[in-house]
Specification:
By secondary structure, the protein is mostly helical. It has one domain. It is built from 5 helices and no strands. Helix 3 packs antiparallel against helix 4 and helix 4 packs antiparallel against helix 5.
Amino acid sequence: MAIGRPARWPALIALAIALIALAVSIVGWFRPMSHNNEPPPKPTYTDQQTATAKSNVCSAFGQIDKALAVAGSFSGGSSDQTAVLAVATNTRQVLDFGNRYLLAQLAQEPATPSDLATAVREQADAYQKLLIGYLDGLHYGDPDLQPATNASVEAEAKLKQLCK
């Protein structure tokens, strides 16, 4: 190697790596895809797994239902604006946490019966809609909030029936 001339071996190694990468990508592009178009089999669960899942999901719903009742009971009918704001804030927090907690519990319990899982999703969706409505300045009883309120009441009744 002469002084002042750059070495060629790093460039040759880089070129070799690039050619190998190109060859691998071409092989990957033309490799046939698997033709398994059948959905994976639906998992089956024992009666014990289903009962445990139902118990855990119903327990989570009961906790959120109780938290909502507690959050709404703090004002005691007070006209104090601080108390009203505190109740509104607590209720919003319960709705926010409640919908996430219910969905997380449902995700952790894949053996949950499908009717119960559907009711939990409906309740979580209603909680989200109520929360957005409250954050948008709507109040309980507002006509624009009525569809979400009705959905929550229906889902709550369904959940209480299923969780007996």
